[in-house]
Amino acid sequence: MKTPVELEAIMAIADNGAFGIHQGLPWHIPSELQYFKSITMNNPMIMGYNTFKSIGNLLPGRDHIVITSKKIPTQEALYIVDSFSEACSVLQTLHCKKAFIIGGATLFTDTLDFCSLVHVSRIHIEPKADIFFTFPVDNWHCIQESDKIVDQKTAISYTLQKWKKIKGL
Ligand SMILES: NC(=O)c1ccc[n+]([C@@H]2O[C@H](COP(=O)([O-])OP(=O)(O)OC[C@H]3O[C@@H](n4cnc5c(N)ncnc54)[C@H](OP(=O)(O)O)[C@@H]3O)[C@@H](O)[C@H]2O)c1
């Protein structure tokens, strides 16, 4: 399937693969959330229903396209669709240059192949989790990696990576 605009994914994964717990993140790292904000700002975000619920409200400056079979009322900046291809149809109407897939694990598993770039925050802790995710590095080439960053408020360290899809896969 050809997507109407360039798609990127953004995710954070702990050293033990921890990805989510109790419908939320297994950590709270303010500076990493700021990074998420800076990368996604002014671009549409596609997400699964559980991720939408875990965010809890609409994030400013970004259109939210939520994939679910549930009937949810739409509002400004909130689009409800029942498939990834319908999410792509919405993107066509938004006149954007790119969009972000922001999770969760179910949606990443289904759609990572459609992304050209993936932003991965490696969180250097090993927390408890009920959802784990492995980024499939074999199909991707790491084009950028930061030094270790230490969050001032939590002292948790993390590394920011950008992965480009290996052509021909
Ligand atoms: N670490 C990270 O970077 C990160 C990022 C995002 C989320 N999370 C965490 O991950 C957890 C949520 O992940 P999750 O895997 O449970 O849920 P999810 O992918 O957010 O949502 C799953 C639901 O979305 C819909 N859906 C997803 N993909 C679909 C597809 N291809 N086609 C049709 N419908 C689709 C379905 O909704 P219906 O059942 O309603 O039809 C499905 O049950 C939470 O703990 C969240 O905090 C972590």
Task: Describe what this molecule looks like in 3D.
The chain is α/β, with parallel strands linked by helices and 169 residues long. It is built from four helices and eleven strands, in the order ββαβαββαβαβββββ. The strands form two sheets. Strands 1, 3, 4, 5, 6, 7, 9, 10 and 11 form a nine-stranded mixed sheet that branches. Strands 2-8 form a two-stranded antiparallel sheet. α2 (49-55) links the parallel β3 (45-48) and β4. 28% of the residues are buried. The structure holds NADP nicotinamide-adenine-dinucleotide phosphate (NAP).
Low-confidence stretches: none
- Estimated structural class: alpha/beta
Query: Based on the structure given, which CATH architecture is correct?
Result: 3-Layer(aba) Sandwich
Give the terminus-to-terminus CA distance. 14 Å
Query: What portion of residues is helical?
Result: 10-25%
Strand content: 25-35%
CATH class: Alpha Beta
Taking the sheet with the most strands, its summary is: 9 strands, mixed
Question: SSE order, as H and E?
Answer: EEHEHEEHEHEEEEE
Task: Indicate the overall shape.
Answer: globular
Could you state the CATH homologous superfamily? Dihydrofolate Reductase, subunit A
Number of strands: 11
Overall mean confidence score, pLDDT: 96
> How many DSSP H or I helices?
4
Task: Characterize this entry briefly.
By secondary structure, this protein is of the alpha/beta class. It has four helices and eleven strands; from the N terminus they run E-E-H-E-H-E-E-H-E-H-E-E-E-E-E. A hairpin with a 6-residue loop joins strand 10 and strand 11.
